[in-house]
Amino acid sequence: MSWQERTELLLGDEKVQQLKNAHVLVVGLGGVGGFAAEAIARAGVGKMTIVDGDTVDPSNRNRQIIALSSTHGENKTDVFVKRLLDINPELELKAITKYLEEEEIKELLDAEPYDYVMECIDTLAPKITLLKEAKERNLKIISAMGAGGKVDPSKTQIADISKTYNCMLARKVRKGLKPFRIRKGIKVVFSPEDIDKSKVIPVEGMRNKKSVIGTISYMPAIFGLTCASVVIRDLVEGKR
């Protein structure tokens, strides 16, 4: 019996084959990207490239799918390689374990003819660069905005970047894309739920981060699974 029996029952053989033939790039394997990557693999996508330069930290355990006491200190990509291939041993999987600089982002996007790009980076500069470069290459892309500080899953939305509101990260992303004349045409997952500013604390010495915001177990997962749903549905329906 096929491990994809239930997916085949829902989608049909032709759409399952479309997923098997697809190549999805997932950049960022944290609370959002980790759940997204696993959902992509479980849907039967045949080829994936995953990118993250971080290791599993104890503080990740409240929201990241691979964060366990037994995985502390391991590269996130290494843990995901084992996990995703355990889900689908036939998956063609490439893992890149590094923080990407601007030129490396360009090289990554030019390296393969990706069918979809999933951007789940939680730091601003590389996030904006990846979105800009993907848009300029006319790649299909979904981007995750800020899940931190949010607690109400019913407020989660899928929208064009131009339609986002009351989201601090989305506002910064829009501002960062404006000099490149990119104001629309990027699909995102966001929530307009108000954030309690007291739940945001400034930090020093963290790579590309000036602050840390409180999070709860289910919100990054909801954002990630929503991103995955966009990718899977667009791939089988042939949408951009």
Automatic annotation (TrEMBL):
Record Pfam families: ThiF (PF00899)
THIF-type NAD/FAD binding fold domain ranges (all copies): 10-233
Signal peptide: none
Gene3D superfamilies listed in its UniProt record: NAD(P)-binding Rossmann-like Domain (3.40.50.720)
Family matches, as CDD domains: YgdL_like
SUPFAM superfamilies associated with the record: Activating enzymes of the ubiquitin-like proteins
Xref: InterPro entries: ThiF/MoeB/HesA, ThiF_NAD_FAD-bd, Ubiquitin-activating_enz
The protein, known as: tRNA threonylcarbamoyladenosine dehydratase
Organism of this sequence: Algivirga pacifica
